[in-house]
Amino acid sequence: MPSRDFAVASLDSPIGRLWLSGTDAGLRSIVRSDHPPDAAGALDPDALADGLRQLDEYFTGGRRGFDLPLDLGGVAAFHVAVYRAAMAIPYGET
Asked: How many other CB atoms sit within 10 Å of the CB of residue 70?
């Protein structure tokens, strides 16, 4: 599979520094780490501005759900099904 351009951005949150990565298709990952990912993204980090904003709103209590496009390209069908099932769980429930 050819590599695609991606963006990387960070957010200091109550649970530590979060690193977001995404492509032009949507958000790829959110990782909690004190260190940036090994590779810098080729896309403008502003591509992740909506994700950063929504996470900040969540951590300050102003948001209970997310409305972001996801890039699930290359993810196994089983894992996509698990992610979709997890996204259907209402806020505050397990």
From this structure: 17
